[in-house]
Amino acid sequence: MAVRSVSGVAIVLMVAILAACGSTARTPGASATPVSSSRMSPSSPPGRPTSTSGPPSGACLLLTQAQIGLVLGVAVAAGTPSGPAGCTFTYTDPANGLNGVSVTVLTSLAPASIAAGCAATASPTRGITISPALGVGDGIACFTAQRGLGTELAFTQGGRGYETAVVARGSLSLRYSAAATEATEKTLGLEVLAAR
Question: Which residue has the higher pLDDT, 183 or 34?
Answer without folding.
Answer: 183
